[in-house]
Design brief:
heterodimer; A: about 180 residues; OB fold (Dihydrolipoamide Acetyltransferase, E2P); six-stranded antiparallel beta sheet; 6 helices; 9 strands; globular; B: alpha+beta; BirA Bifunctional Protein, domain 2; 2 domains; 10 helices; 17 strands; about 25% helix; elongated
C-alpha cells in the first residue's frame, strides 16, 4: 500500500471536518485560563465547596470534612452517552492523580473514560451502579455518583462553576 | 513508529498478530496529536475478540477453543482422534479495550480504525465512510444500520422506491417494516461489519471489522456459543448475534477504497505508512502488548458473574439438564474480577434421604481461569459433597471451565 500510486478520485465529495471547531474550543480554553489567573481569595477547600465541573464533563463536590470529594459525571454527559449498560468503578484504596482515568462507562458499544480532576485516594465507590447502571442515566448528579476521593491537598485546577459549565456545554452543542 | 505530525495520517500493519495490532492501534490513540485524524488498517490471524466489559465464559465456547488449540498445537497440527481436524488452526482469545460485543477475526476480514478529535466524532460518520468505499467498489447493497454496523440488504428484487444514493443508511433493497415481506423473501440483511468505540479525554476511536472472504463463517458460531451460558448470570455487556456474510472482495481492493474515501473526507495524502513487526521495540507498544496478553486482562477484567446449576432468586431461568449430573444437583459460585468470592453445592444423598449442602470455602479467592483441572480439586469436593457427586461435578467443570493453556 505504501508504494501504491494514489488513486484519489477527482470527484472527491466534500466531507472535511468543520475547521471552526478547533478555534472555538481554543477560545473556550483561553477564556478559562483568564479565570484561573484571578487572584485566589479562599483556601483550596473553600474554593470547591460549591459543585464544580470539568471540561471533560465530570462534577466534583467537596464534603463537609473539607477533604473528601464526591465525583460523578454531569447530566449533559450522561445524556450524550446514551443508555449506560456497564460502569467500571475504581477500587477503594486506589491512589490517583489528577487527569487519570479512574473508570469507564460503556454505552452504545463505546467505552468512555471517567477522569478525575482531583489527586488523592479513592475511599468509596457507588456499588449500586454495578448492579443498576441505569441509575447513572436517571440521576447522574445525585444517586449516580461514581466515587469519593480523599484529596491529597494539591490544588484542583480547571474547574468551572455551574454557569460557566452551562455556557461551555452550549458551545459544544453549537458544533 | 514515529507518530507523524501531519494532521491526517494513514497506517497499515503487515502483522497478523491481534495483540500487536490492537496495541499499535492503542498507541496511535494515546500518542497521536489531539487534533489529528488517523486511519489504521490491519488484518488478524484467526482470533476471537471480546469487548472490554464482556465475560469470556459466556461469550466463547472455551472447551472447543481449548481442544481446537490443543489439536492445532499438536504435532503436524492435525487431530487424529475421531477423524476431527481443526480447519482454522490456533485461535487467539483477546479482550479489546473498546466496548461492544464479541467478533471473530481471520485473514478474510479487514479491520479499519479511525481516530479523531472528540468534537468531530459521531458514531456513524466512519461507518458511512466505509459504506461509500464499498459502494465505490460496486457493493450497492451496503448500508449503515441502526446499530452503527454495516449490513448488506438481501433479496433479488429492487423495491421500486426512489433512494437517495448519497444516503448511506438505505439501499434500493432496504425493506422497511411497512413492506410487509420482511423476513420471508430474501431474508434479513447480513452483517458484514461490526463497530466499537473507545473514547478518551482527547480522542475518539471507532474501529470496525469487514468480512470480505472469511472461509470460517460456517464454524464461527460454534466457537461463539458457550455451553455454560444457561447457567451464568453476568453483569456487563452481552453480545447481540446477527447473521453474517462475506462481501466477496479482495483485502487489498477494500483497503485501497477505504484509504481513498478517508483521503476524500480529510484531504490527506494517500500514502499509508507501513507498520512492521519490529514495532514491539517501541516501549509503549510493548507495554500495551503485554497488558493485552496478560491473563489478568483477559479473565480478571470480567464483570461480576454468578454460576448456578439451578434457578436462583436473581436468575429464575430453567436450566437445561446435564446428563452426567443428578437433576437435583446444585453448584453455585459468584466471581468478582474473575475471583471466586463464594461457592456452595448441594446434592441429593445416594439413599434418597435428604440433601448434602455445603459451603465450598476451598474455592474462595481462587481465580476461575486458574483452576486448570477441577478434577484436581476432587478430594476437596469429596469431603463436602460425597465421592460420586464430586467426581461427576469435577469432570463437568473440567470440560466447560478450563481455559486454554496458552491463553
Amino acid at each position: 500500500m505504501a508504494t501504491r500510486t494514489s488513486l484519489l478520485r477527482t470527484a472527491c465529495r466534500a466531507h472535511a471536518a468543520a475547521p471552526q471547531s478547533i478555534s472555538r474550543s481554543a477560545f473556550v480554553t483561553a477564556q478559562w485560563r483568564r479565570q484561573n489567573q484571578a487572584p485566589r481569595m479562599f483556601s483550596v477547600a473553600a474554593k470547591v465547596q460549591e459543585k464544580k465541573y470539568t471540561k471533560d464533563h465530570e462534577w466534583i463536590e467537596l464534603g463537609e470534612d473539607g477533604k473528601t470529594y464526591t465525583l460523578g459525571i454531569t447530566s449533559y454527559a450522561a445524556s450524550a452517552l446514551g443508555d449506560v449498560i456497564y460502569i467500571e468503578l475504581p477500587s477503594s484504596g486506589l491512589e490517583i492523580g489528577a487527569g487519570d482515568a479512574i473508570g469507564a462507562v460503556e454505552s452504545v458499544k463505546s467505552a468512555s473514560d471517567i477522569l478525575t480532576p482531583v489527586s488523592g485516594t479513592v475511599v468509596a465507590t457507588n456499588e449500586v451502579l454495578e448492579e443498576k447502571p441505569k441509575v447513572l442515566n436517571d440521576s447522574p448528579e445525585g444517586d449516580g455518583w461514581i466515587c469519593r476521593i480523599e484529596g491529597d491537598g494539591t490544588d484542583v485546577e480547571g474547574l468551572m462553576g455551574v454557569g460557566e459549565y452551562k455556557a461551555f456545554t452550549e458551545e459544544e452543542e453549537a458544533h | 513508529m514515529s507518530v507523524r505530525v501531519r494532521n491526517v495520517q494513514s497506517y497499515i500493519s503487515t502483522s497478523h498478530d491481534p495483540f500487536l495490532n490492537l496495541s499499535l492501534e492503542h498507541h496511535l490513540l494515546q500518542s497521536s496529536p489531539s487534533d489529528s485524524t488517523i486511519l489504521f488498517l490491519y488484518v488478524n490471524r484467526p482470533s476471537i475478540i471480546i469487548g472490554r466489559n464482556q465475560n469470556p465464559w459466556l461469550e466463547v465456547n472455551l472447551e472447543l477453543l481449548r481442544t481446537a488449540n490443543a489439536s492445532a498445537n499438536a504435532k503436524g497440527g492435525v487431530e487424529k482422534e475421531e477423524g476431527r481436524r481443526n480447519a482454522i488452526g490456533p485461535i487467539d482469545l483477546v479482550r479489546r479495550r473498546s466496548g461492544g460485543g464479541t467478533v471473530f477475526h481471520d485473514t478474510g476480514n479487514v479491520n479499519w480504525t479511525v481516530i479523531c478529535p472528540p468534537a468531530t466524532f459521531t458514531r456513524d460518520k466512519h461507518a458511512e465512510m466505509v459504506v461509500r468505499a464499498l459502494r465505490n467498489l460496486g457493493v450497492e447493497r451496503a448500508r449503515v444500520n441502526e446499530r452503527h454496523d454495516i449490513v448488506m440488504d438481501q433479496g433479488a428484487a429492487r423495491l421500486g422506491k426512489s433512494v437517495d444514493e448519497d444516503d448511506m443508511h438505505v439501499t434500493p433493497f432496504t425493506r422497511s417494516e411497512g413492506d410487509g415481506q420482511s423476513e420471508g423473501d430474501g431474508g434479513r440483511p447480513l452483517k458484514i461489519s461490526g463497530s466499537a468505540y473507545k473514547l478518551t479525554r482527547h480522542r475518539a476511536l471507532h474501529h470496525g471489522t469487514c468480512l470480505l472472504s472469511s472461509p470460517n463463517l460456517g464454524v464461527i458460531p460454534q466457537y461463539l456459543h458457550s455451553p455454560v451460558r444457561p447457567y451464568i448470570k453476568a453483569r456487563g455487556v452481552d453480545s447481540v448475534s446477527s447473521p453474517v456474510g462475506n462481501v466477496g472482495l479482495a483485502n487489498n481492493d477494500f483497503q485501497t477504497a477505504v484509504a481513498d474515501e478517508f483521503a476524500c473526507m480529510y484531504g490527506g495524502e494517500l500514502e499509508a505508512e507501513v507498520l512492521q513487526d519490529g514495532l514491539l521495540e517501541v516501549e509503549e507498544v510493548r507495554k500495551g502488548h503485554e497488558e493485552l496478553k496478560a491473563v489478568e486482562w483477559t479473565y480478571n477484567q470480567t464483570p461480576q458473574f454468578t454460576f448456578s446449576l439451578q434457578p436462583t432468586a436473581d436468575d429464575q431461568r430453567e436450566r437445561p439438564a446435564i446428563e452426567s449430573l443428578h437433576s437435583g444437583a446444585q453448584f453455585f459460585f459468584k466471581a468478582r474480577h474473575g475471583v471466586i468470592t463464594e461457592a456452595s453445592a448441594s446434592f441429593p444423598k445416594t439413599d434418597g434421604a435428604g440433601v448434602i449442602t455445603s459451603e465450598l470455602d476451598f474455592l474462595k479467592d481462587r481465580m476461575v481461569h486458574e483452576i486448570n483441572g477441577w478434577a484436581n480439586l476432587k478430594e476437596k469436593f469429596d469431603a463436602h459433597i460425597g465421592e460420586d457427586n464430586s467426581e461427576q461435578l469435577a469432570q463437568w467443570l473440567d470440560s466447560t471451565f478450563t481455559v486454554s493453556a496458552n491463553q
